[in-house]
Amino acid sequence: MAKESIRVTFLGGLGEIGRNCLALEQNGRIVVVDAGLMFPEPTMYGVDIILPDFRWLIERRDRVDAIVLTHGHEDHTGALRYLVKDVNVPIYGSALTLGFARHRLSEAKVAHDLTFIEVEDHERRRIGPFEVEFIPVTHSVPSAHALAFHTSVGIVLHSGDFKLDLTPIDGRRTDVTRLAAIGEEGVALLLCDSTNAEEPGFTASERSVGAALRRLFLERPERRMVVACFASHIHRVQQIINVALEQKRKVVLMGRSMEANVKLARKLNLLHVSTADIVDVENIDRYPPGEICVICTGSQGEPLAALSKLSRGDARFLKVGPDDTVILSSHPIPGNEWSVGRVIDDLHRAGTEVIHSGNEPVHASGHARQGELRTYHQLVRPRNFVPVHGEYRHMVHHADLAISMGLKHNHVLICEDGDQVEVSATGIRRSGQVPAGFHYIDGSAGDLDERPLEERRMLAEYGLLLITGGIDKDRGVIVEPVRVTTRGWFEGERDSELLELVTSQVREALDNSLRDGERDASSLNKVAQRTAGRLLGQKYRRQPVLLAAVSIF
Ligand SMILES: [Zn+2]
Ligand SMILES: [Zn+2]
C-alpha cells in the first residue's frame, strides 16, 4: 500500500440492503464504520440473521482503533454483539445511537467491558489515525451522522443514511452548509447512500406524514386508532403522539422495543410526552375507543411483535375489531411483503379497518432520492466516488448520477462486498479483495455456512430419499432387499412407479459393483446414491437430499 494513500475495505452493504460495515485504513491503522445485520429471505430456512464476514477484521484486531456508528438502525449496529467479542475497541456515536446499541448489547450480555464514547453534532475528534467530524443528517431515526474523515490525502466523506428534509420534526436539518464547506476543503472520496438512487424527485418530508395522520384521526373521532411503526422512528412516534393529544386521546404503547425506545428517547430529551398522557395497556378498557391511540411495533409483519399478536387476537388486554382503525405507518422492507400482507388480512378478518402506505400517505422514506443526491454531489464535489448502501442496481444508478454531475468514469467505482480500494492524490483504484460472504446465524444451531443451508433448501423443495439394504460380504450378494423410503413426497401412483424404478436401478447397480469385486461399504453406498441421484435428477428434475445406508455383513 502506497504511503500517501487511504485504503477502504467494504465488508457489507454493497449489493444488499443490510449488514453495513466498512474499514478505513491509513498507515496500517484501521477504523471501522458501522457493524450491521441483515434479515434473511424466506428461503434461507432457519436463518435468523445474516452478518458480515468479520474474519479479515479479526485477523487484524491489533490494528483496529475504533468502531464509529453513523446511526442506530439494526442494519448499522445489529452485528456489534458478534464483532465486539473479538474486536473490543471503543465505540463512538451519538447518545441515541449508543443508547440503542448498548441496549441490545446488554440484552446479549456482552456490554460489560465495552467503552462507549458519546459525540456531539459537529464535534471533531481524533479517532485512530484520523480526525473524524460528526455532521448532522436527517434520517428515519434521530441523531444520525455523516462522517468526515480528515486524512493525509484529503477528506473521506461517508454520507451515512440520510435525506435532505428541510422541515424535520426536531428542526435538526442535514448540515448542508458544512457539507459545502467540506466540499471547498476537498473531498478525496465520497461514499454515499444509494437506497433511493433509482427514484426520481425528492423524498417527502417526515412532516407530511403527520399531516396525513392528523386528517385520518380527525375523520374518525369515535374510533380507536392503532398505529404501527418502527420503534426506532422516534420522530414518527412523536407525530403520532402529537396528533393523539390534539384530539384528547391517551397514548398506549405496545411492544417491548417501543416501550424501551420511548423511555430512552424521553430520557435524552428527544421525545416529548408527559407521563400523565400515557396509559398502561392493562387499563385500556377504562377509556372509550375514541379516547385512545395505541402505538405499537410490528409494522413489518414480524410474527412475535405486537401488531401480529393483535391481528391474531393473541394480545393481552386488547382485542381489535370493528371499532378499531389500524394504520401501518411504514413500507414493507423487500422480503417482508408476504408477512405484512398476512397481518393485513387477519386484521380485516377481525372486522378492523386497515390503512397502509398503499392507500394513504402514511409513510415517508428516510433515504434521499435522485434530486437530493444531485444536490449532495453538487455541494460536496468529490474527486472520487463509490456508491454504498444499496442493491447492485441502486449503486449502478447512483454511479450514473455521479457521472452525469461531472465526475469522470475513472473516478467512479462500483464496488461489492469484499472489494478494497485505494485513494491517493491522483485517483482511486481497486487494490484487492477479502472474504465477505454471508455469515448466517441460526438462533438454535449457531453459525451456518452455505452447505447446510443448501441442504435445507433441497429438503424443503424436494424432500428426502433414503436407500437401505444389506449385503453379504463373503458371498457378494444382496441379502436384505434394497428399499427406498421418502419424506416430503406425495405418495401417489406416479411416485410409487418412480420409486420402484429407483429401487430396481439401485439394485442393478449394486449387483454390478459386487460382481466387479467391490465390497467396501462407503463405495457401495456411493454407487447407490449416485444411481438414484442421476435417475431422479436427469429424468425427473428432482433433487431430494439422498442418504444411502446399505449395511455390509
Ligand atoms: Zn441503513
Ligand atoms: Zn438507517
CATH architect. name of the largest domain? 4-Layer Sandwich
Classify the secondary structure makeup into a structural class: alpha/beta
Give the strand content: 15-25%
Strand order of the largest sheet: 7-6-5-3-2-1-19-20
Q: Tell me, what's the shape?
A: globular
Please name the fourth-level CATH homologous superfamily of the largest domain: Ribonuclease Z/Hydroxyacylglutathione hydrolase-like
Characterize the largest beta sheet: strand count, sense, and whether it forms a barrel.
8 strands, mixed
Bound molecules: zinc ion
Write down the CATH topology of the largest domain: Metallo-beta-lactamase, Chain A
Task: Report the total helices.
Answer: 15
Determine the N-to-C terminus distance: 63 Å
- What is the average of the pLDDT values? 95
- List the domain count as a whole number: 3
What integer value in Å does the Rg equal? 28 Å
- Low-pLDDT segments, ≥5 res: none
What is the helix fraction of residues, given as a range?
25-40%
In total, the number of strands is 25
Please give the CATH class of the largest domain: Alpha Beta
